[in-house]
């Protein structure tokens, strides 16, 4: 009888140990996304299989999505309202570029569990309203300058994320977005409607202080700067990527279908 009691006690101890070990697994599975959801709200960094995902990383994903929500409709509107071939070409670049980027961020949303907006924000809707309200004579200028200004503002932010991120998916998105934004800036400027003075004044702001070297002196020719060349016996085999002046190469692999990608996939 004592042996029987001992066996029972040992069995109970083993069962209790197994239950204690299993509980965290059983409990954690339905709650596996809680930490990521909480981090999205608090701005904390989330660890993913592609590297840490920071608040700045998530902000870029959302901003790329928001850009498409107003710039793609802006492109479609210009295709209908503008009579300028250059504006229509720029509009086509907007439609193609943001259709591609939107598929990429929707795929990333599924992979990284980052919620995306479905409507442009208030400021972006205001841009669309300004375009809609513009007269036929002013439309091209209003359209081109609103879009050129917006692209110019996000370009340095993309560069910041590209430089700082430790997440490989976000790094690739920043590279893709940089290509697309530069392409859009280039094609918008080709419309001949961009007011560079207004953009420069808005970017400088009233409190900006001048930076860089002093202005050139009239009649004074600066000395020719020496070439930057390697020292020693260095044989260069690579060549700069071929490109057409004024054209940004945005040729890249097609985006994955968001419908086929699950969380963490």
Automatic annotation (TrEMBL):
<feature type="domain" description="DUF4142">
    <location>
        <begin position="57"/>
        <end position="186"/>
    </location>
</feature>
<feature type="region of interest" description="Disordered">
    <location>
        <begin position="204"/>
        <end position="265"/>
    </location>
</feature>
<dbReference type="Pfam" id="PF13628">
    <property type="entry name" value="DUF4142"/>
</dbReference>
<feature type="compositionally biased region" description="Pro residues">
    <location>
        <begin position="211"/>
        <end position="225"/>
    </location>
</feature>
<feature type="compositionally biased region" description="Polar residues">
    <location>
        <begin position="240"/>
        <end position="252"/>
    </location>
</feature>
<dbReference type="InterPro" id="IPR025419">
    <property type="entry name" value="DUF4142"/>
</dbReference>
<protein>
    <recommendedName>
        <fullName>DUF4142 domain-containing protein</fullName>
    </recommendedName>
</protein>
């Amino acid at each position: 009888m004592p042996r029987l009691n001992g066996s029972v006690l040992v069995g109970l101890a083993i069962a209790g140990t197994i239950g204690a070990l299993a509980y965290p697994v059983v409990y954690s599975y339905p709650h596996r996304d809680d930490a990521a959801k909480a981090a999205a709200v608090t701005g904390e960094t989330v660890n993913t299989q592609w590297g840490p995902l920071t608040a700045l990383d998530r902000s870029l994903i959302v901003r790329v999505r928001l850009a498409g929500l107003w710039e793609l409709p802006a492109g479609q509107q210009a295709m209908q309202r503008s009579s300028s071939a250059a504006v229509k070409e720029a509009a086509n670049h907007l439609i193609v570029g943001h259709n591609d980027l939107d598929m990429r961020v929707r795929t990333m949303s599924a992979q990284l569990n980052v919620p995306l907006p479905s409507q442009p924000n208030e400021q972006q809707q205001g841009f669309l309203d300004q375009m809609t309200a513009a007269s036929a004579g002013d439309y091209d200028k209003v359209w081109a300058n609103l879009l050129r200004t917006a692209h110019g503002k996000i370009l340095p932010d993309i560069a910041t994320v590209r430089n700082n991120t430790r997440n490989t998916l976000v790094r690739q998105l920043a590279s893709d977005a940089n290509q697309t934004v530069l392409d859009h800036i280039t094609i918008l400027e080709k419309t001949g409607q961009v007011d560079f003075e207004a953009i420069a004044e808005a970017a400088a702001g009233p409190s900006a202080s001048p930076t860089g070297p002093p202005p050139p002196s009239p009649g004074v020719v600066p000395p020719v700067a020496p070439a930057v060349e390697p020292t020693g016996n260095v044989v260069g085999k690579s060549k700069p990527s071929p490109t057409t002046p004024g054209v940004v190469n945005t040729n890249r692999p097609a985006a994955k279908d968001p419908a086929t990608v699950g969380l963490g996939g």
